Amino acid sequence: MSELFAAGEARAASVGREAGGCAAEAACFADGEKGSFAGRIANVARATKETDIELALNLDGTGVTDVETGVPFFDHMLDAFGRHGLFDLTVRAKGDIEVDAHHTVEDVGIVLGQAFAQALGDKRGIVRFGSSYVPMDEALVLAACDLSGRGQLHYAVDLPIEIIGTFDTTLAKEFMIALATNAGVTLHIRSLSGENSHHIIEAAFKACGRALCDATRINPRIAGVLPSTKGSL
Q1: So what's the pLDDT on residue 224?
Q2: Where in the cell is it found (predicted)?
Q3: Residue 177: predicted pLDDT
Q4: What is the CATH number of the domain that holds 70?
Q5: DSSP conformation class of 111
Q6: Contact between residue 55 and residue 31 where contact means Cβ atoms under 8 Å apart
Q7: Does the residue 228 lie in any domain?
């Protein structure tokens, strides 16, 4: 892994111990007898003929992001996802954007999903479920998730226009499919109102980040216990 991501891992471990909000429970156990959750970090790299991606994720961060994908609107959405989910997220992606942004957006979703799966480990002690309503001016979006191990997306988002800057708005769904599938998350996203596509998509990314923040946090009442009646996730 590159020096960039080695440095990102060290920073992630440091800020994770100081995090508040959704990371508070993890901080509670940083030095406790129940075990350490300071290591809920992941570094993932993926290279194909279409894209070359490196990504670092800290579940117990403070929302520090550093994103470069070559697709400005997508960078903005990933920044919103990390900041509002309180995930520390570093992304470096190079793709065939001279064709279009499809491969880059989808493959970042794949790598981010893999990072979530890696950072969650065996999922012991997690809350598992999360949901969030996020308003953005006239737009209102709901995201709800279950870290079930059964990756699937249920997406009902109405978008008035097809292009925002250089970003094809249909790619928001492609990203969410890749994220849910590779993270093993059942993810529902629904737009309840909205007229501006920028507002709707941004509310969706923020809501997704906040829902995952809730679902991935450590529940101190079940530290070390898997939240499943069947004993596996």
Answers
A1: 83
A2: Cytoplasm
A3: 98
A4: 3.30.230.40
A5: H
A6: no
A7: no
